[in-house]
Design brief:
This protein is an alpha+beta fold. It has one domain (2-174). 46% of the residues lie in helices and 18% in strands. It is built from seven helices and six strands, in the order βαβααβββααααβ. The protein has helices spanning 16-30, 51-63, 69-73, 105-119, 125-135, 141-144, 147-165, and strands at 2-7, 42-46, 80-83, 90-93, 99-104, 169-174. It has a six-stranded mixed β-sheet with strand order 2-1-6-3-5-4. A hairpin with a 5-residue loop joins strand 4 and strand 5. Helix 2 packs across helix 7. The radius of gyration is 16 Å and the shape is globular. The protein starts with a strand and ends with a strand. The mean pLDDT is 86.
């Protein structure tokens, strides 16, 4: 399974009945979603199979697991949502047999800023797009950046958009055929 980043409300991301359940769980736990559901979902691509776990591993080695509660909240498989509010990490059961893991988008952004400073990476959209563009360079791309750096860039870019739109940032699993 791979993971994709998507910014928007649950109803723009999941099929109808599951979207209604997820939106209801979030509304009950954190209050009404506001304008989240009115925004068109924006997709920020799919991660390599090891990108998420490598980002968590390296970030934990660099900054310590305890200083990354939001990054670590979605687990090693990286499935869940970052909400545009200062919330405590939480997990809620869903009828599909999985849990909806939730964490704070502003908290994640603070953790990404700490990582950016440590790894000397940009946090602005243009700089992050440059990191991702270099990865696609046929001459230098394969050796230019490690998977965790590319994951960082894609996550930070999506987090920037989620903050601008005041929308959730979803990490959603995709089953590979």
């Amino acid at each position: 399974m791979a993971v994709s980043f998507t910014v928007g409300g649950a109803r723009g991301i999941f099929e109808d009945s599951f979207a209604a359940e997820v939106a209801g769980v979030l509304d009950n736990a954190f209050g009404p979603e506001g304008e989240w559901e009115g925004n068109t979902a924006l997709h920020y691509g799919e991660l390599a199979d090891t990108g998420w776990s490598e980002l968590q591993r390296r970030a934990s080695e660099e900054l310590g697991r305890d200083s990354l509660p939001n990054l670590m909240a979605l687990g090693e498989d990286g499935r869940g949502v970052y909400l545009p509010a200062n919330v405590q990490t939480a997990s809620f059961p869903l009828s599909a047999g999985c849990d909806l893991r939730c964490a704070s988008l502003p908290g994640l952004r603070n953790e990404l800023a700490d990582l950016a400073a440590r790894w000397e990476l940009p946090l602005d959209d243009h700089g992050l797009e440059d990191v991702l563009r270099i990865a696609h360079d046929p001459d230098d791309g394969c050796v230019a950046e490690a998977p965790e750096i590319l994951t960082f860039a894609r996550l930070a870019l999506a987090a920037n958009e989620a903050m601008r739109r005041d929308c959730p940032l979803w990490l959603v699993g995709q089953v590979r055929a």
